[in-house]
Amino acid sequence: MSGLGGVVTDLVADIDAVFLFSPSTASYEAIVDESDVPVVVVAVENTVGAELFIELPIEFREIKERIRFGMEGGIDQEYIDTGTIILCAMNLFDDGIDSVIRVRAGEFTHTGIYDLFVNSRAEPSVIRNVLEVVIGLGKKGQKGKPVGALFVVGDAGKVMNKSRSLSYNPFEKSHVHVGDPIVDVMLKEFSRLDGAFVISDSGKIVSAYRYLEPAAEGVDIPKGLGTRHMAAGAITRDTNAIAIVLSESDGLVRAFSGGELIFELDPEAY
Ligand SMILES: Nc1ncnc2c1ncn2[C@@H]1O[C@H](COP(=O)(O)OP(=O)(O)OP(=O)(O)O)[C@@H](O)[C@H]1O
Ligand SMILES: [Mn+2]
């Protein structure tokens, strides 16, 4: 005996809901049939046909971010409230559920990670597509060299008013959207040059090479980040856009909304 029996019993005692992260059909069905509390599935796709479902925009590798997204989504969709005690179950290694985490929804700091995707001006799929491009850029860099990039997504009219052009806009008369494979290549190419990309609510690429000039008052971004991140944070406070930044110096991807850093992730983990 490991002596952990009591710990495991305490983990599962008096829970109000179960959150299953990307479960297989077999494990979902086994649990939903037995459970006397609501079972919520959190996954990129609802392949198991769950009644209570929270859509993950990407499989956050950081477990805390994945859980946080689930909690904030659960509260937003009114599956749970801040007092709910949740057993999160997931599969980190081979097949089947191998990890359980007990958490009270209200103990998790609300960061707005769910809001950033679901309640932004831009469509969630547009934000997900931009995030995927930026992660791809972060992984490969530009011809092996690290590259920085700044994407401002949504509320494009206002963003254009708060910025100026640094160079000829290659997207001037085009009607291209993020997510299109050709566009991914173009964006990677143009990201070698300075300034920001501006993307509309529906994913249209409005401009490259924009120098952002938002009011920076009241913007509180972590110390040590430079002007690109400051401009990203500030534009999201001054407009209803969100911003996704790839840092050339530390290689991390960061997302800003409402003037605040909402999450950061390491593209190498994806
Ligand atoms: N206001 C702005 N609008 C658009 N792009 C900007 C703005 N300010 C800086 N940048 C871009 O950010 C680049 C890097 O600047 P800086 O090193 O100060 O930022 P940083 O936050 O430290 O980013 P990194 O982590 O990538 O170095 C600049 O070369 C420029 O292309
Ligand atoms: Mn820098």
Automatic annotation (TrEMBL):
Keywords in alphabetical order: ATP-binding, Manganese, Nucleotide-binding, Nucleotidyltransferase, Transferase
Molecular function via GO: adenylate cyclase activity; ATP binding; diadenylate cyclase activity; manganese ion binding
Cofactor: Mn(2+)
EC number: 2.7.7.85
Coiled-coil regions, chain positions: none
Pfam families per record: DAC (PF02457), DACZ_N (PF19294)
Free-text function comment from the UniProt entry: Diadenylate cyclase that catalyzes the condensation of 2 ATP molecules into cyclic di-AMP (c-di-AMP). c-di-AMP is a second messenger for intracellular signal transduction involved in the control of important regulatory processes such as osmoregulation.
Protein's name according to its UniProt entry: Diadenylate cyclase
Gene (UniProt): dacZ
